[in-house]
Amino acid sequence: FSEADVSRLKKKNIVIRFQGEQGIGAGVQREFFDLLSKEILNPDYALFTPSPDGATVQPNSNSYINPDHLSYFRFAGRIIGMALFHHQLLRVYFTRSFYKHILGVLVNYQDVASIDPEYASNLQVCTVLLVHLQVLS
After folding, report:
1. Which of 7, 38, 39, 48 has the greatest number of CB atoms lying within 10 Å of its CB?
2. How far is the C-alpha of 14 from the C-alpha of 8, rounded, in Å?
3. pTM for the complete prediction?
């Protein structure tokens, strides 16, 4: 979003109405974002994949099979941002390493454990060995 888009959003509340339904307000808004977030995580779109821990998701390394995957990721980011902006919690749980990537924070081997526990364990062993080698030098 541009600065102008953000300032316009700050001035307006979002109003969601489902076709053929009477409800309006916070509950409808919550349902809208909940339904949309479930669709964003839909495996048929190949955007996100469950991590081995079963509790979190991460970007799918095969998302390129969908030629418009970058547009879909941009859309997903905007929807998640809009939900957060409007104080709507989503049932979308990303891996710690993905959150760190979004924030520009360095990822360490502990962050990778939910994605690949064996790889994380091997990285930890390598880190310990490097520390011991540095101490011996």
Report:
1. 48
2. 11
3. 0.71
d(CA 27, CA 4) in angstroms, rounded, equals: 28
The tokens 């454990």 sit on which residue? 113
Q: Over the stretch 70-96, which tens digit does the pLDDT of each residue have?
A: 999 999 998 888 888 888 888 899 999
The pLDDT of residue 64: 94
List CB contacts of 12: < 8 A, sequence separation 6 or more: none
Tell me which H or E stretch contains 4: helix 3-11
pLDDT digits (tens, 9 = 90+) for 89-129: 888 999 998 999 989 999 887 888 877 778 888 888 888 88
Coil, helix or strand for 61? Answer: coil
Tokens representing 58 are: 């991460």
User: HSE on the CB side for 112, CA within 13 Å?
Assistant: 13
Say how far residue 110 (Cα) sits from the centre of its chain: 18
φ and ψ at residue 48, rounded to 5 degrees: -125, 155
